[in-house]
Amino acid sequence: MKKDGFFSQLKRGILDENPVFVQLLGMCPTLALTTLVSNAIGMGLAATAVLVCSNLLISLLRHIIPKQVRIAAYIVIISGFVTAVELIMKAYLFDLYQSLGIFLSLIVVNCIILARAEAYASKNKPLPSIVDGIATGLGFTFALIVMAAIREVIGSGTILGYDITFGVYEPAMMIAQPAGAFITLGIIIAAVQKIKNSVEDKKRLKRLSHVEPKERGDKE
Amino acid sequence: MSFTDILLMMFGAILIENFIFSKFYGCCPFLGVSDKPANALGMGMAVTFVISLSCAVTWAVYTFLLEPFGLDYLRTIAFILVIAALVQFIEMFLRKFVPALYNSLGIYLPLITTNCAVLSSTLLIIENNYNFIESVCFGFAAGLGFTLAIVVFAGVRARLETAHPPRAFRGFPITLVAAGLLAMAFSAFSGVSFG
């Protein structure tokens, strides 16, 4: 793996193809566990650990698993790692284990992990698959942290448990509630689309203003 | 638990602790399949059926197999396998006997395996120590809550299609905001108490 390849893959996973904000996968934990930044970090890292391990194993087994039963095989592999992460967290990080609750087990059915297994790890060598797991996992963690930071600051007036209102504003409870989760995510994705739109518009404008076809390759 | 308690529990699972709007279990199919009311109803019924059945089966697997042998820690793996097998079975059954429904649900049926509403309800009945009857009722109610949410939301989305939101909000974002407003309506049920 080349070094610049690693960083460009990392950037793609976190920004260009962010699993939550751009690919719109993994909605359940994104909506449910983002009331507090600490939960978001815990969930993101747990999912990243599972994603890296499952990507590695699925990539190693990619020639062995028969095509017809691949999804079932992936799910078994993923749920094995989820159970491992669950037991480790129960032993060493009991508070986090309790606050994540059932969503820790639900990593099994997180579409991001299955999507990466199907779309990437089953077709690529182990090392790139690990990098892809790290990149996608960090992208997921990043999305969770952004969501949680917004919701914790506005909804509870704290960040990582520290009070930051200084008496200036009253926390808006609504944002910390389920309804707020949907609306916050909607506004964030709208912002992402806004950026995408303006980039596309600029590209189109540039293409139209250059008459020579050689200068602009047909990128679209 | 008496009959009244079971009814109250079901009421709670459908409205107060609605799987979508207060617990966020099963948001992916909720946001993905809710574009047409007919599809939404089919999906909701399929999910209700799968949840009820898998709650019954996983309860039996847990009580008679995992717990007596101290294999409690294997429950996530065991449950997801049971669910995957059940979904496969239902898919084959529908293809053979109800092809119309099979054609309309098509690609969505395999997605039920990875629907967190199913896995989470099987895990919740273990966590809450429900007996067999309670488990099946809880699963059924959870499925009904899911169906209610997805059908109501499909109606809202049918209206959204003719609306003209700002360009950045088109598509997914406006859907999420609408879901948020609906969640707000559902959160009113949290004030209901049984005196």
Give me the number of helical elements of chain B. 9
The largest pleated sheet of chain B is described as:
none
Number of strands of chain A: 2
Helix % of chain B is over 70%
Low-confidence region ranges of chain B: none
First CA to last CA of chain A: what distance?
Answer: 28 Å
Show the largest interface.
Answer: A-B, 42 and 45 residues
Inertia-based shape of chain A:
flat
Give the averaged pLDDT of chain B, no decimals.
85
Radius of gyration of chain B, in angstroms, nearest whole number: 18 Å
Note the overall shape of chain B.
Answer: globular
| End-to-end separation of chain B | 17 Å
Number of domains of chain B: 1
SSE-based structural type of chain A? mainly alpha
Summarize the topology:
The complex is a heterodimer of chains A (220) and B (195).
Chain A: H1 3-16, H2 27-32, H3 37-60, H4 70-92, H5 94-100, H6 102-105, H7 111-121, H8 126-156, E1 158-159, E2 162-163, H9 173-176, H10 178-209
Antiparallel strand pairs in A: 1-2
Chain B: H1 3-16, H2 27-33, H3 37-66, H4 75-97, H5 99-105, H6 108-111, H7 116-127, H8 132-160, H9 172-187
Helix pairs in contact in B: 1-8, 3-4, 3-7, 3-8, 4-5, 4-7, 7-8, 8-9
Q: Would you kindly provide a written description of the structure presented here, covering whatever features stand out?
A:
Chain A has 220 residues and is mainly alpha-helical. Chain A has one domain (3-204). Helices cover 71% and strands 2% of the residues of chain A. Chain A contains ten helices and two strands, in the order ααααααααββαα. Chain A has helices spanning 3-16, 27-32, 37-60, 70-92, 94-100, 102-105, 111-121, 126-156, 173-176, 178-209; strands at 158-159, 162-163. In chain A, strands 1-2 form a two-stranded antiparallel ribbon. The longest helix of chain A is centred in the last third of the chain and has 32 residues, at 178-209. Chain A is flat, with a radius of gyration of 20 Å. Chain A starts with a helix and ends in an 11-residue tail after the last helix. The relative contact order of chain A is 0.16. The mean pLDDT of chain A is 85. With 195 residues, chain B is mainly alpha-helical. Chain B has one domain. Chain B is built from nine helices and no strands. In chain B, helix 3 (37-66) runs parallel beside helix 7 (116-127), helix 4 (75-97) crosses helix 7 and helix 7 packs antiparallel against helix 8. Chain A binds chain B through residues 24-28, 31-32, 71-72, 75-76, 79-80, 82-83, 86-87, 102, 105-106, 108-111, 114, 174, 177-183, 185-187, 189-191, 193-194, 197, and chain B through 21-28, 31, 73-74, 76-77, 80-81, 84, 110, 113-116, 119-120, 123-124, 127, 166-177, 179-181, 183-184, 186-187.
